[in-house]
Amino acid sequence: MTALHGSTAAVGEAGVRGDSVQFHGVIGMCGQSGGSGVAGVNDNGGDGVSGQGHNGVRGSSSADEGAGVMGHSSGVTGSGVLGVGESGHGVLGVGKGGAPGVKGINENPSALGVLGQGHIGVWGQSLNERGFGVFAVGGEAGVLAISNEPSGRGVEAISREGAGLYAQGSPAGLFQGDVRVNGVLNVQNVDVLGRITTVEQDLAKAIQQQVADLRNQHAAEVQRLTEAVAALTARVAALES
């Protein structure tokens, strides 16, 4: 039997209302682990509980495994917790200890823990100058990036002062496809493109020198043959006389 029951069919009137100037307007307490201090039920498509204030709804928990606010949805496309911000954040998570501000877990091993959609799907920023904007650990790949645009880039790395991309491994880089370098290619403090240019220039000079030597050698051979033919012609003429 319900200790207190209020009911009304009038539009804009509450079934039960509690007013307090110094404390809570309504307080509900429950001594059962499976119950709720206050429960709101709506069977007609509306909200079970609606709160309005500086914080619309506030939940607090001091249990080690508890949650300040818990939302549960069994719908196929429903959400456990939905946050909508007209100008600010849809959902804001703030951590004051060593735990993350926001943590997403999916118990399905092939599903996503966190999904971000927007002009920038996921934005990560570190407030520590030695920190990481985004840190990822994976089995096959720590980060998988895919671009569907013909002129897009799977990964774009930009650094204002240091290296745009730093890779460490064995090998440090593996490319399946063509590689294009717009700039200096430096390998162990050696300008590879500059070294190739120097080698090409030295090779061109060596070829030119070999061609000049062959020409000089050919001219000397022609001169020697010409002199031999002249001497032979003179001996023939002397024999005929």
TrEMBL record:
Region (Disordered) location: 41-71
UniProt KW keywords: Coiled coil
Keyword Coiled coil: yes
Key word Coiled coil present: yes
Coiled-coil positions: 204-235
Composition bias type Gly residues, residue spans: 41-56
Top-level taxon: Bacteria
The protein's name: Uncharacterized protein
The organism of origin for this protein: Nonomuraea spiralis
